[in-house]
């Protein structure tokens, strides 16, 4: 049948196929007609962006009068798109001969052109909870004109604005009532109102309205809670997590989101989530910060998931259209941003992004080719990124290396998202502040036999003591601080160092960070090395923008450390005023730790007073806000990573799967140090000489090591840098 439906395409004319989606009642079988068009002729068509769904869960449809099986999700999308007249649409599953690898590779290479050439892109997120409450018998009565129901949201149009704000006002009015599902006549109507509420919130926020004004009663309002549940259900659509849909949403100028009965411009959905945090909570206005953090935690979690997803989507849109850079630089950026997205074919984690960089200078040589294995695609991509950037940034990933994978250890496995899909973005933004392995003239790396990375590096040390990986969800910081200090103490004690003042014991742990008499290791005190190591020597300025830590940050760290280890009495209600003469209400029964806080602040030259309750003075700083940046820096740097001490006394944080005996290297072209593992038992690989086999390693991961982050290890030891091989 495939030979009857799919005739060869003329690649010179950039031919592709489109379907004509024929009219039909809701319950009737979907029918389409397939035809060939040339993109060079600028045909008018729409494009569908959707998720295939389970390939084993299929339903029949008609294609050129032939019965074919398509996934349930595709059938549902086409059913939603049917109108009284035929619609010309490009749909990948139907318009590409999926069994022809050559055609598939060629069509993927022009995928961005296909979506850019569409007059509109319809993004099908799936059905909301409403449809499941409507019987098939009732659905069978829907005709082509009035059913199923559709609610259209618009923007930047006077009529659309008026209609939208009428719906928004209706949602505000419903909030003021205490009605639940029982008062709406049916569960269907209640869920329909909840969906409308979710879109009303998004539409309101997209216009820059204050987040606080979305809620007109209290956070327990039944319809408010239901609207946020609808928002969560919308976010749970797998569309947001697929790599192909990322590319499809980047290309078009006009895209419409379809979620059940509601349709809205994609920019309404994206803008609504991307403005909440920078504009209303952490931005200059901060008008909604108190409101946001007063919401129940489950509501905050929904909204933060929404903010995160839309912020990342909007940021990529911005970079795609607003600035130029070499193709490899943009490709590496996109690979980071899409790390948490999935693809049915692992090779598509690269192929799906290639069309988004073709308009940029310095073209990459990678082309979609489904005859290559996943390992070949990833290796070829990685070495091209290394050669063009002339650095080893690509080696910095959060993933745990699979020792039995056919993918070399130095090549990112882009099919694996790791524990945090956004971690790679943060790793690379943090690394910009370091330069552990300065790069001179010439290429930093070469590729041998299509899999061995040939680089230059210097072994600095070996790992001697490792603690368990840190886990934000379950760890008690005070316990882990004790464990890390114990690891340091164990190292220094065996070498005859006297650390009574540095580490007097568990009862006085805070003295480790506030005592004035600390031992020196090179040009760094142990005290200085420890507090900087625990935050990776970086503070977050704004989203993904960092700066090096300063002595003022040490003060904050000391207070954060005291609070985490000892716990300040009701510290959430403490406020700092930078004026000792300001009239305030003092704490009636000072806690000993408060006096310690005051002493530390005054020693640092600050004229702070600790007061409670909140005073009216404008100079007030909430104590928890004062130390919160340290907590963020601590977890951002170290969550899921292991504290370690080396044989020579260096301390740092590294990958969770590192072992004692692993080697600490600084690599030429690497902004940070790396943990390598020597390939044991000899190297059964004919490409190496006997002498080279002693210099073959696998990559464990990147690390922070205090004292060697700025080229100190290589400086003065350039003659010791030698060639090594990574498998």
UniProtKB/TrEMBL annotation:
Matching Pfam families: HET, Het-6_barrel
Heterokaryon incompatibility domain sequence ranges: 45-248
InterPro entries registered for this protein in UniProt: HET (IPR010730), HetReg/Transcr_Mod (IPR052895)
Recorded superkingdom: Eukaryota
The protein, known as: Heterokaryon incompatibility domain-containing protein
Species whose genome carries this gene: Endocarpon pusillum (strain Z07020 / HMAS-L-300199) (Lichen-forming fungus)
């Amino acid at each position: 049948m495939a030979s009857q439906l799919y005739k060869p395409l003329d690649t010179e004319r950039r031919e592709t196929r489109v379907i004509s989606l024929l009219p039909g009642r809701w319950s009737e079988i979907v029918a389409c007609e397939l035809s060939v068009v040339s993109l060079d002729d600028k045909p008018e068509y729409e494009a569908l962006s959707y998720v295939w769904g389970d390939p084993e869960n299929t339903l029949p449809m008609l294609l050129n009068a032939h019965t074919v099986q398509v996934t349930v999700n595709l059938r549902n999308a086409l059913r939603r798109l049917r109108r009284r007249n035929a619609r010309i649409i490009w749909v990948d599953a139907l318009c590409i001969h999926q069994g022809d690898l050559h055609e598939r590779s060629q069509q993927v290479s022009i995928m961005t052109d296909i979506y850019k050439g569409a007059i509109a892109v319809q993004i099908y997120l799936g059905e909301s909870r409403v449809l499941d409450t409507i019987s098939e018998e009732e659905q069978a009565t829907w005709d082509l004109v009035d059913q199923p129901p559709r609610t259209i949201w618009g923007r930047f149009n006077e009529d659309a604005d008026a209609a939208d704000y009428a719906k928004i006002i209706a949602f505000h009015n419903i909030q003021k009532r205490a009605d639940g599902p029982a008062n709406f006549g049916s569960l269907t109507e209640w869920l329909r109102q909840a969906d409308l509420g979710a879109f009303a919130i998004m539409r309101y926020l997209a216009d820059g309205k204050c987040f606080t004004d979305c809620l007109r009663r209290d956070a327990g309002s039944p319809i408010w809670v239901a609207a946020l549940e609808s928002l969560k259900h919308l976010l749970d659509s797998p569309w947001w997590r697929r790599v192909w849909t990322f590319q499809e949403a980047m290309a078009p100028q006009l895209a419409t989101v379809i979620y059940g009965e509601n349709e809205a411009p994609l920019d309404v959905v994206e803008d609504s989530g991307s403005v909440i945090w920078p504009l209303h909570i952490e931005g200059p206005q901060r008008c909604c910060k108190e409101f946001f953090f007063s919401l129940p935690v489950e509501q905050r979690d929904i909204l933060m998931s929404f903010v995160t997803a839309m912020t990342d989507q909007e940021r990529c849109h911005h970079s795609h259209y607003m600035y130029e850079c070499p193709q490899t630089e943009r490709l590496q950026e996109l690979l980071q941003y899409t790390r948490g997205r999935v693809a049915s074919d692992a090779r598509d984690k690269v192929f799906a992004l290639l069309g988004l960089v073709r308009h940029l200078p310095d073209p990459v040589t990678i082309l979609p080719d489904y005859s290559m294995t996943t390992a070949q695609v990833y290796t070829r991509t990685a070495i091209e990124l290394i050669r063009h950037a002339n650095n080893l940034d690509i080696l910095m990933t959060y993933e745990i290396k699979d020792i039995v994978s056919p993918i070399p250890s130095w090549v990112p496995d882009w099919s694996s998202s790791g524990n945090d899909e956004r971690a790679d973005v943060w790793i690379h933004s943090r690394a910009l502040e370091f330069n552990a392995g300065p790069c001179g003239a010439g290429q930093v790396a070469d590729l041998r036999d299509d899999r061995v990375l040939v680089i230059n590096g210097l072994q600095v040390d070996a790992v001697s003591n490792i603690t368990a990986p840190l886990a934000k969800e379950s760890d008690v910081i005070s316990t882990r601080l004790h464990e890390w200090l114990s690891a340091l103490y164990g190292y220094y004690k065996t070498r005859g160092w006297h650390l009574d003042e540095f580490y007097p014991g568990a009862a006085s742990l805070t003295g480790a960070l506030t005592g004035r008499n600390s031992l020196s290791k090179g040009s760094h005190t142990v005290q200085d090395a420890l507090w900087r190591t625990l935050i990776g020597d970086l503070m977050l300025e704004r989203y993904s923008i960092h700066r090096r830590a300063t002595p003022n940050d040490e003060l904050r760290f000391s207070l954060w450390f005291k609070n985490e280890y000892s716990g300040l009495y009701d510290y959430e209600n403490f406020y700092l005023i930078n004026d000792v003469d300001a009239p305030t209400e003092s704490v009636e029964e000072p806690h000993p730790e408060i006096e310690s806080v005051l002493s530390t602040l005054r020693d640092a030259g600050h004229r702070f007073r600790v007061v409670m309750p909140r005073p009216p003075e404008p100079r007030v700083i909430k104590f928890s806000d004062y130390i919160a940046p340290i907590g963020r820096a601590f977890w951002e740097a170290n969550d899921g990573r292991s504290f370690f001490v080396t044989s020579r006394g260096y301390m740092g944080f590294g990958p969770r799967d590192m072992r004692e005996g692993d080697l600490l290297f600084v690599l030429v072209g690497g902004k940070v140090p790396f943990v390598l593992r020597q390939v044991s038992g000899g190297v059964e690989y004919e490409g190496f000489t006997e002498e080279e086999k002693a210099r073959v390693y696998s990559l464990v991961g990147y690390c922070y090591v205090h004292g060697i982050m700025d080229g100190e290890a290589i400086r003065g030891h350039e003659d010791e840098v030698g060639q090594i091989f990574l498998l």
